[in-house]
Amino acid sequence: MTVQTPFQTTVTVVGMTCNHCTSSVQEEVGEIAGVRSVDVVLDSGAVTISSDRPLARPEIEAAVVEAGYTLA
Predict the structure, then answer these.
(1) Are 54 and 32 within 8 A, CB to CB?
(2) Which domain of life is it from (predicted)?
């Protein structure tokens, strides 16, 4: 049996002001292939992504932009 350790990536998202904002970011980033979980901290804008593979900044940025926000 092989146990894979997830990769973790943390980025900062600018412009989130409410729980709806965090939900939008979680939903869009969660649709990236291989993403296991997305944790968002509203106050700091920190978004921590656990995934099965390394994620490239451009693919994360595309998902964040789709949600209506930008990366710092």
Answers:
(1) no
(2) Bacteria
**Residue at 31: amino acid letter:** E
At 11-37, the pLDDT tens digits run: 999 999 999 999 999 999 999 999 999
What is the C-alpha end-to-end distance of the chain, expressed in Å? 39
Question: What is the CATH class of 7-71?
Answer: alpha beta
Q: What's the token pair of residue 55? A: 């994620």
The SS3 call for residue 57 is: helix
In DSSP terms, 10 is beta-bridged to 48
Domain ranges of the chain: 7-71
Is the whole-model pTM more than 0.85? yes
Place of tokens 């292939």: 33
Residue type, 17: T
- What integer pLDDT is reported at residue 66 of this predicted model? 98
